[in-house]
């Protein structure tokens, strides 16, 4: 069911943040209950964070693949219902005691083992659905499964540290590893089959209940990924397959030294020679997974920040011209522009604004950025326009309560703007301000709907350690909260 853009409201919540007894949110019963609650709350959209398999730091923006799904999100109870696992197979593992955070240490230790049990109990090789999936996804699945099998074989080392012949994808060496690691390769294909099967079933349920899924794709891919390993000529690497320069952003409000993401930069000259075929395949994949997709860091398509790989921070980077309209026109040969939302935050140049308008993409505004005392601040509701997706905050922001606790002057301005008397009233005031604006789509973080402090913050840019861990607890998104949201959605025509 295709859902066209309409005036509506939604909630930003990563799948990982759903409740479950197994250390992390999954595509199981809690996802369906969340969809039911969104429907009850009069919502139209569920926005998620990237759903790819995560590597070091557990960041969804540093994935082993731009096409694969995260095996951690495969619901184990669903595998029990299929007869691939027994309840005791799951319960013999310790999935962590604290349901309010993702237990990455326990998942890393146990999730592969329990999925391996399901794989060994399955008869997927005789399944028409499985064989069809492998055929339809072979462009990326073959390389991804071999990549993951090799990572396991080489004790999780980055592909740049593998044996020279497989690192450089020597044809005979790859064939030898395909034979040697046949069973492991098939295991990773099985995981993707199960992920995609569960995802599409969940998405169908959401669409049938009037909820559109907004996905999120990082503009860049991780260096340690199947994408870079299998397509090294499409990235700025030297003769030893090491990055010449890496991605990031210059110093800003988040970091005085800028953000050095470490992702390899695209070789746009080589990509243009292929008519951006890799990007077109990526966007076709996204169109099958989501009803709309947010392109993270859209500015990087117009101009990108390049940091010499040997630098320690992002201070000494420079701006370079990106492919701009050429890339987007290529993407539009396989995907309608109505699917795309662009993250156009930060210091913009005229070319970024011009391209967004020319392509007809809605941009983003973040209400939390609006209270610097300037009445013309573009993040304030009275300055919004129809073709916008507006947020209380993003995954990189403090929560509303956390931010205004730490920024007294802005808190006073926000309270005056919304005619409220206390910090605790601001989350609901934000909801009213976003819902009442002319913007087509209004999205609030789940943490802001619940009025939580910075202990619930999802990510602090340029840091690692405690990010991507917050989870919604069972029963936290109450019927009372949903009914209030529905009432406001009705009042403001969402």
Write structural notes for this entry:
By secondary structure, this protein is an alpha/beta fold. It has 20 helices and twelve strands. The protein has helices at residues 29-40, 76-81, 87-91, 104-121, 128-136, 138-153, 164-167, 171-180, 182-208, 226-230, 268-273, 277-289, 299-302, 325-331, 350-359, 400-406, 408-418, 426-436, 446-449, 479-491, and strands at 8-12, 45-47, 212-217, 245-249, 259-264, 292-295, 303-308, 318-321, 340-342, 363-366, 388-391, 441-445. An eight-stranded parallel sheet has the order 9-6-3-2-1-12-11-10. Helix 6 (138-153) packs across helix 9 and helix 18 runs parallel beside helix 20 (479-491). It is globular. The model has no long low-confidence stretch (mean pLDDT 95).
Distance between the termini: 20 Å
* Structural class category: alpha/beta
> How would you state the average pLDDT, rounded?
95
Strand content: 5-15%
Fraction of residues in helix: 40-55%
**Count of beta strands:** 12
Query: What is Rg?
Result: 22 Å
Poorly predicted ranges: none
Strand order of the largest sheet: 9-6-3-2-1-12-11-10
Number of helices: 20
Can you summarize the main beta sheet? Answer: 8 strands, parallel
Q: Which term fits the overall shape?
A: globular
SSE map:
Blueprint: E1 8-12, H1 29-40, E2 45-47, H2 76-81, H3 87-91, H4 104-121, H5 128-136, H6 138-153, H7 164-167, H8 171-180, H9 182-208, E3 212-217, H10 226-230, E4 245-249, E5 259-264, H11 268-273, H12 277-289, E6 292-295, H13 299-302, E7 303-308, E8 318-321, H14 325-331, E9 340-342, H15 350-359, E10 363-366, E11 388-391, H16 400-406, H17 408-418, H18 426-436, E12 441-445, H19 446-449, H20 479-491
Parallel strand pairs: 1-2, 1-12, 2-3, 3-6, 6-9, 10-11, 11-12
Antiparallel strand pairs: 4-5, 4-7, 7-8
Helix pairs in contact: 5-6, 6-9, 16-17, 18-20
